[in-house]
Amino acid sequence: MKIGLVGPTAQAWSLPFNAERTVNLFPVLDKRGKEVAALYGTPGIETISTVGVGGIRGCFSAQNGRAFIVSGSTLYEIDSVGAATSRGALNQSSGNITIAENGLQLAICDGTTVYILTYASNAFASPSSPGYGTAATIVFLDSYFIVNKVDTGELYISTQYNGLLWAALDFATAESSPDGLSRVVAAVGQLWLLGTSTTEIWTNTGAAAFPFQRISGANLELGISAPHSAVAVKEALVWLGEDRFGTGGVYMATGIRPQKISTEPIELLLQKATKRSEIVAFAYQQQGHTFYILTGGGLATSLVYDFTTKMWHERAWLNDEGEFELHRASCCMFAFNKHIVGDRENGKIYNMSMDVYDDAGQPLRRERIYTHLVDEGKRMRYNSLEIGFEVGVGLQNGQGSAPVCSLQLSKDGAKEWSTSYNASIGAVGKYQTKVTFRRLGIAETMTFRVYVTDPVKVAMSGSYLL
Predict the structure, then answer these.
(1) How far is CA 213 from CA 356, 437, 463, in A?
(2) Which CATH number does 21-43+366-465 carry?
(3) What is the residue extent of each domain of the chain?
(4) φ, ψ at 360 (rounded to 5°)
(5) Which CATH class is domain 44-353?
(6) Which of 272, 323, 384, 427 has its CA 20 to 30 A from that of 138?
(7) DSSP string covering 56-76, please?
(8) For 458-465, what is the mean pLDDT?
């Protein structure tokens, strides 16, 4: 009998109702495949270099081919092998930042101050006495850098193509609601002004007094709860939202009307975040999938939405106590033909690759908890479970030369788990290996948890009770 192996993270408030979980695995759908769905291992990370001494606060791949990292209080430029050159010092060594460019300059905003790196000279400076005083976030659109002033509804624009010059009167105010302006974002060709409980969408009309004006009717009764969760991706804007009724979920807008893409189980995880407003997000594309990743802010693990399958999964680092915690990546950029991510706690930068099967030398545990198996309250005997792995993936020597899949059982709705049972997934070249577990016992409710920690390729498709 075939049973459901593939699915998203969907743990309910009550585990006996639904304990389904997918960690460091992501679903893949293919109607023409041997199975219509599979689980692939998420990419591992390998260390490129160490840049500075602080946590990586942001990274940016410029259109001119240059790549930048903010580590602690320093802006660095890195080359293709990760060698770093200091380009300037910020006033603060921690906190979230936004980065933008105009083709001639790189702009960084640390929540208070704007810093400008001029590409031609590598000069690094802040604007002199800008009208905005203190800036919360920055973006570039239609030849202007744009910032929102801290704790106000005001937005300011720079002189065209010059982030060092800001006229005191070049500002406007988001006025459809009295809530504060938390984030400015360029998305879908427009300027989005995200407040604490409302959003306005503006466009460049070319007006002499102030070029950006609010689009009539383009105001939403939905704001943003984590300013650095907003990411423009796939001709859409995605963010962690809330309104005057309370915290909401994750929303995506491809026009002017957003749709919720988070599920109830994902929202339960978000609501447990101890510093929700500090959650950050980034997006990247790999293996034909585009992923949006929420991390930080007191989340227990990093939460990932896959635009291709429209399913959520988790990514996590396995700590020394054997527990899941946030993935190491705090940001991501595609540079030098690599997905380069920065470490959330130190100055390390990594190559994130599907061909890497551990986390910078540490075990990468891939885990799937199935949906509960029940038959109208009847006790059932489970003779054997066969899982359709890609087998024969063992390494030539060392850890992973004899890779195994481990299975744990729960008969009480995922409250308690059995000891682990192991089955080989095939030494190198052993392509006829069968991944089978036998004599699983009798239960009214049976739940399976499978996991792999060996540093090998993991691809799972199909699961059968025999």
Answers:
(1) 48, 64, 56
(2) 2.60.120.260
(3) 21-43+366-465, 44-353
(4) 55, 45
(5) mainly beta
(6) 272
(7) EEEEEE-TTS-EEEEETTEEE
(8) 94
